[in-house]
Amino acid sequence: MARAVSKKRKAAYTALAGMLGLCMFFPVIWILVLSFKSETDAVRTPYQILTSGWTLESYAAVQERSDYFLHFTNSVIIALGSTLIALLIAVPAAWAMAFVPKKHTKDVLMWMLSTKMLPPVGVLVPFYLIFRDLGILDSRSGLVFMLMMVNLPIVIWMLYTYFREIPAEILEAARMDGARLRQEVLYVLAPMAVPGMASTVLLNIILAWNEAFWTLNLSTVNAAPLTAFIASYSSPEGLFYAKLSAASIMAIAPILVMGWFSQKQLVRGLTFGAVK
Amino acid sequence: MATKRSRSAARLMISPAVILLLAWMIIPLALTLYFSFLRFNLMMPSGNEMVIGLFGKGLHVPSPRDLTGWSNYYWFVTDPTFQAAIINTLLLVGGVLAITVVGGIAFSLLLDLPMWGRGVIRIMVIAPFFVMPTVSGLVWKNMFMNPVNGFFGHIAKALGFQPIDFFSEIPLLSIIFILAWEWLPFATLILFTAMQSLDQEQLEAAEMDGAKWPSRFIFIMLPHLARAITVVILIETIFLLSVFAEILVTTNGGPGVSTTNLTYMIYVSSLLQFDVSMGSAGGVIAIILANIVAIFLMRMIGKNLDA
C-alpha cells in the first residue's frame, strides 16, 4: 500500500509537522532554558536570555527555599504507594472477572467505572471532614489511600482488559498436561500477565503523580507532594522565574520519560477500551 | 470450566474491591446529600452535634435538628455567582472541546502523512499531557503571559505592539488556552490511534474512483473517526467539568468571578467560606451535571464491552 511520495513532499510534511510539534513542546524547552539562568537573566528578552551565561544556581536555590526533597519524596511515596496497594486489590478482582465471568460481571465492571465519573468536588466536603476528624489531613497515608481509591477503577479495568486477552484454552492445556495451580499461575499465567500489569502500573503512577485536586485540598505542608509544592509559587515573591523553572523541570522530568513509554497504554487506560 | 469452588473463590477475590469502592462512593455521597439539607457552617457550630462512629474516632456533624429543607439549593442557585459559574463552565468546556477536537483531527491527519522522524514529532506533540496541572498553569501565566517579563510580552514589544495583559484582559480565554494545550495531546493521541485502523485500500479505491481529498475526508475518514471523536468529547467533558488546579494557581477565580467555574465556586464556599451546606448543595448539582454526560459515555463503553 505504500505509495510513492516525492522526497520534496515528504520533506514539506516533515517540516510542517515538526514545526507544530515544536510549538507544542516549546514551553517545556523554554523552562529548561530558564532553569539554567540566573534570576536576573531569566526576566530579560528572549534574545538576551539565550545569549546570557548558564548556571546551576536555581536548582540549589529551590532546595533552600523550602525542603524540595521532602515534597519529592512525598510524591514518590504517594504515587508508588497508591499504585501498589491498588494493584494488590485489583489483581484478584480483575483476575476473577476475566477468568470466572458471571452474569453480573459486566454490570459490576461498569459500576466500578461509573465511580470514576463522580466529580471530586461533589464529595470534597465529606472527605475533608472525615480526614479532619480522623486526624489524617496533611498525612501521606491519607493521600495514599485517597489516590488509591481514585485510581482503583482504572487499575481494575486495565488489568481486566489485559487478562481477558489471555486465552483460557492455554490454561486448560496446561491443566491437561498435569500442571498444578501453583505451576499454572507461575509458569503459564504470570509470563503472559506481566507486560499488562507493568503498563497498568506505569500509567497509574503518572496519573497519581499529576493528580491535583485531592493533593491540593487535603495537604498543606508535611504531606504536600510536588503538585502542591509548585502551587506555592502562585504567590509571586520578587524574582522567581528561574527557581520556578528549575522546580518545574525536576517535577515533570521523571513523568515525561515514563509518559513517552506509555503512549499506547494511555489510550487503553483513559478511554476504557472504547477506542482501539 | 468454572466449578463451584472456583466460583466462590472468585467472589472472594472480587469482594475487597467491591466493598471498598462501595463504601468510598456511598458514604461521602450520603453525607453530601445530608449536609446539603442542613444549616452547617464550620465557623458557626449550632451546638446540635452528633457523632457518626468511624474507626472508633467519630465524625462530628450537626444532628438532624439543623435540617432546613431546600433553602441551601435555593440560595446557591439564586446566587449571582452561580449564573456566572455555569456560564464560565460551559464556555470553558465548549471552548477547550472545540479547539482540541478540531486541532486533534488536524494533527492526526498530519501525523498520518509520510514523513521522517514521526516518532520524535509525536512525542513532542504528546508531551504536554504529562505536565502536571499546577506546572502548566504557573508556567503559562508567568513565563509566557506576563505582560512585562513573559515571552509573549517580549515578542509583542519587539514587534512594536502593546503587550496584552492576558489574565486581566482575557482571563477566561487564557485559561481555555492553557487547558487546550494540556488536552490537545490527548485528543491527538486517541484520534491518531483510531486513524491507524482505517482501511487504506478503501481510501485508495475511492481515490481511483476519482474522489478528491475533501470528499474522501468527509465520506471516509470522518465517519471512521466518529466513534473516537465522541469518546474524546465525552471523556474530556468529564475531566473539564472538574477543572480546578489551573484556576487556583492562575486567577483564583477572578478578576471578580470571571474565571470561577462550578468546581471552583463550590471550593470557595465550602473550604474558604466554611459554608459546608452551600458547598454540598453545589456538589449535588455538580454530580447531577456530570452524570448527564457520564450516562452517554457509559453506554458507549458498555456497547464495546459486548463486542
Q: How would you summarize what this structure contains?
A:
The complex is a heterodimer of chains A (276) and B (307). By secondary structure, chain A is mainly α.
| End-to-end Cα distance of chain B | 22 Å
Helix content of chain B: over 70%
Write the CATH architecture name of the largest domain in chain A: Orthogonal Bundle
The whole-angstrom Rg of chain B is 25 Å
CATH superfamily of the largest domain in chain A: MetI-like
- CATH topology title of the largest domain in chain B: MetI-like fold
From N to C, what is the helix and strand string of chain A?
Answer: HHHHHHHHHHHHHH
State the name of the first-level CATH class of the largest domain in chain A.
Mainly Alpha
Give the termini separation of chain A: 22 Å
Our count of helices of chain A gives 14
Average pLDDT of chain B, rounded to a whole number, is 88
Low-confidence sequence ranges of chain A: none
CATH class of the largest domain in chain B equals: Mainly Alpha
What is the CATH topology classification name of the largest domain in chain A?
Answer: MetI-like fold
Domain count of chain A, please report it: 2
Overall, the morphology of chain B is globular
Largest sheet of chain A: none
Instruction: Work out the oligomeric state of the chains in this entry.
Output: heterodimer
The proportion of residues in beta strands of chain A is: under 5%
